[in-house]
Amino acid sequence: MCPIAIGDGRRVALGLERSRPESARSQQSALISRAASESTAPARESMLTSKIRTRVLAENPLLREAFCRILNKQERICVIATHCGEGADFVRLSKNAVDVLVLVSQERMQGDLEQIAAIRREAPTLKILLIGSAKEDAEFLQYVRAGVNGYLWRDASADELAQAIENVHSGKAVCPGELCAALFRFLEVAEPQLPFGSPAQRLGLTRREQQIVPLIAKGFTNKEIANHFCLSEQTVKNHVYRMKHKIGADDRLSIVQKFRTQGFLL
What we know:
The protein is built from 13 helices and five strands. It has helices spanning 8-13, 20-49, 61-72, 89-94, 109-122, 137-146, 158-169, 177-190, 199-203, 207-217, 222-229, 233-247, 252-262; strands at 52-57, 77-79, 100-104, 127-132, 150-153. The protein has a five-stranded parallel sheet with strand order 2-1-3-4-5, sandwiched between helices. The termini are far apart.
């Protein structure tokens, strides 16, 4: 038999072909669906970038994994994996990809202080939350002086840990109430001994040198500082050289630490 050609009208009537209005509606729905999908993509990407990139550094691998499991359940926190064997190279490898470092104390104060100093050398602006069990006020004060941004007891709850990370990330200082009292006691005793006057008067720095210190603390290079003040890079090098000699600092990090000790930088 010869195949029978069915006209457009009969094909529609027999249900063999969708009518043109239906086809148009279908295409419109597809376009709306695609547009909605594309509009939500940036939102999803924004949600991911808004999370606080957090890394856990602990001597004990089991302890590190436990902290990572706790933090992975927090919506506002994105845990950056730490691979075994990274050791001291961790900061150099990832200082630009981490917002907050959760550092678990080794329970050896000298070891902790050395580790904090090494991190500060590599990443001066990295926020550090130290998890420990300081037994004396003096130990806690040493950690503060070394440059940690927050301190939390080892037995802190998951919610307390997450809140501490958020606070440290936003620039707030974090510590348990009893250790906060230690800071007040320290200032009460030390206050009569604290010298008064401007940094220029006490440390002999010029106004320009004082302006350079906060930028060094933020990790700016000599070239970036020069661009900021419209100076030559050599002029900035000369300023830094004179600053080190004036205040007895060995390097750029020591300049920042001297200012922090004097209470000029937080």
